[in-house]
Amino acid sequence: MPPLLIKSVWKDHDLVDIFINEHYFQKIAKSISLDEVPKNTRVIDGAEKAIIPPFYNAHTHAAMTLLRGYADDMSLFKWLSEYIWPLEAKLTREDVYWGSRLAILEMIKSGTVFFSDMYWNREETIRAVIEMGVRATIGVTFAENLMSPKSIEDNFDFLEKNAACHERIQLAVMPHAVYTVGDVLWRRCAETAQRLGLVLHTHLAETTEEVENCIQKTGKTPVQYLDSLGVLNQNVVLAHAIHLTPEDIDILQKRDVTLVHNPSSNMKLSSGKMNISALMKAGIPIALGTDGASSNNNLDMREEMKFAALLAKVDGGPELLSADEVFHMATVQGSRAYQVNAGLIEEGKLADAILLDLNNERLIPNHHLVSNWVYAADARCIDKVICHGQILMENKSVENEIEILERVKKFAAKN
Amino acid sequence: MPPLLIKSVWKDHDLVDIFINEHYFQKIAKSISLDEVPKNTRVIDGAEKAIIPPFYNAHTHAAMTLLRGYADDMSLFKWLSEYIWPLEAKLTREDVYWGSRLAILEMIKSGTVFFSDMYWNREETIRAVIEMGVRATIGVTFAENLMSPKSIEDNFDFLEKNAACHERIQLAVMPHAVYTVGDVLWRRCAETAQRLGLVLHTHLAETTEEVENCIQKTGKTPVQYLDSLGVLNQNVVLAHAIHLTPEDIDILQKRDVTLVHNPSSNMKLSSGKMNISALMKAGIPIALGTDGASSNNNLDMREEMKFAALLAKVDGGPELLSADEVFHMATVQGSRAYQVNAGLIEEGKLADAILLDLNNERLIPNHHLVSNWVYAADARCIDKVICHGQILMENKSVENEIEILERVKKFAAKN
């Protein structure tokens, strides 16, 4: 992988040169001459381009791309029990591998270089991530309703042996939810995550039903229940976090957890609306996620930013969640939550970036680039996607694209 | 413009051949041989493509693309009075022409072949529509707060002389709103539209403020007020229609008007949510519109479909507004409302179509094409756009694209 020198590219309101070496932004300056960089450096013309941070998708289930459009427009219970679970039960390891590759292909093409994944057959997703050049936090998923005691032990074994997984991959401990994991296992998950320095990620307070059942069973809301078990701390990332009491919000703030907003999925499944206003007032960090493709039905973080901003405004007023704020959620907050030293185009940060084509009609006129990116753009505006100092997409194409599409079409034909 | 023969393209669940001649779908059959069609027919390979109806954007302000991203994330009043109106006051006819062309470019690239436009300097938008090959209903706009008595008379004069405007263009009478047009002018607009057989289109019940002011002034809701003036009938198309009483809904149903849903704009400006559930129960036809690019901030009807469906579901349950229903709004209902004999791929309909690329990753797996189109796709999935029997986009490009972009960039640089 040769070093990269991007010449004369727009960064915020300036034209700069950017030198990328050994996976990092090594130098950003008004002008960097060819004499300063190694001979094998690839020079990229930044004319009519802008460089911005790419997306960090803070909650998804990658291989569920296989179920895209398989069942829509129905109640959560019917959707899961009659369609999603029966088809998932038939998924082979190979299916998960190709579903993960399809997801990564889709993410790269829409400017996402990192995702946090909660699914089964994690080895297959790890293989896909390594091969395709993106970053990921891969979940070791726990759900007592679906797993034997032996496979739970295998999970912990896997965590102990693979905590330092790969330079672009971290593992995370992912108990599925308060209704699928019991006290004892929750405590053990939390202890393991803390000891190994890993993120703990779960679904929380996604539906009113979940909250009511938790109160009935434990006398506590999901947040208060997890807090009573000692689970919550700054390495915890909670997806959804829709149905919260003011006391819950106080606890989340004190424990310094990060939340993940998944507006498309929450809207499509009619789960409810995250209380952005109260959470922002409390200063609780919020990242952004697409959730899985079967409840979204894509993994397009640009579209997700627009959904987040507009959903906040519809009830909360037009000033709530500005373009800049939601862009921050989708970039800085996502990478920070998962301990990736990225999310900004700055010297010393990992070299992840999007080059935007300023000649795409959606970015014209260019009164405010971030507004255009959040509210007006689409993936056609992306000229190049860079992750870990390597170009993953250019000329609209990604390596081995056709093979991935053909394999997934075969999957669809047999199901 | 030669006839077109599209060979072996997916239509619904069948592979068909489609012959397009003299602006219409002339024949759709399992197989059409080259002997059956004129020698100058252009043959298009439909392999790995699906043909679907394109979009009919039922409410927009095309030239407001010039104001894309100029002001966001603020209250409606501040947005209009401090930003939008002062910049609009500076727009020249030439600006409106290039702004309209940018809008049409953006619409073609995202699969829209028709739009209903309410703006100023209509001659410029008409010129842009004729040159670029799309269809439009062009508004003759009335707003007493902004117009001299002379320009109002000029408007009526223009309507009388140009009622039969162009084979791809119809005029419509467009009084701006109940708060900008008085009784006498409302009655005259309605009489003129009826006599000339034109659509009457207006903004209605967009904000609670509008409704409260109307009640204070007239003792009636906006719907009841317009009904008392005899304005409402089956040739009336009302944009927004958010804040309605049950009595309003009864009246709209009886008068057989069509409504236009603009979910992105309504969310972004925090105007409120259309009551899709009640309106669908009442059987009132609803079309879909993007509104102007300064409150959206794009003209992407695919994205608008997803916003419509997900906004309906978030409060109304996951079954409300299915993918097929929202696709019907964006195609059949939009063309029907504006009296365009299109919106379906059927013999005898005007030849408007999108060819979708079934090898785009967003359309894979193809469990349900309409679901993929509504929830997962983006404009990259579009292979060709056809309007009035002519190909307006292929190989991702539209005629004179670069000139349009350069002209609008110059506009942005001076403002």
Kindly describe this structure.
Two copies of one chain form a homodimer. Chain A has 14 helices and 16 strands. Chain A is α/β, with parallel strands linked by helices and 415 residues long. Chain A folds into two domains: 4-52 and 350-393, Urease, subunit C, domain 1; 55-337, TIM Barrel. In chain A, β9 (169-175), α5 (183-196) and β10 (199-204) form a beta-alpha-beta unit. In chain A, α11 crosses α12. Chain A is globular. The two termini of chain A are 40 Å apart. At the A-B interface, α2, α9, α11, α13 and α14 of A face α2, α9, α11, α13 and α14 of B.
What's the short version?
Chain A has 415 residues and is of the alpha/beta class.
Topology summary:
The structure is a homodimer of 415-residue chains.
Chain A: E1 4-11, E2 14-21, E3 24-29, E4 42-45, E5 49-52, E6 55-60, H1 76-89, H2 93-109, E7 112-117, H3 122-132, E8 135-142, H4 149-162, E9 169-175, H5 183-196, E10 199-204, H6 208-218, H7 222-228, E11 236-240, H8 246-255, E12 258-261, H9 263-268, H10 276-281, E13 286-288, H11 301-316, H12 323-337, E14 353-357, H13 369-376, E15 382-387, E16 390-393, H14 401-414
Parallel strand pairs in A: 1-4, 6-7, 7-8, 8-9, 9-10, 10-11, 11-12, 12-13
Antiparallel strand pairs in A: 1-2, 2-3, 5-14, 14-15, 15-16
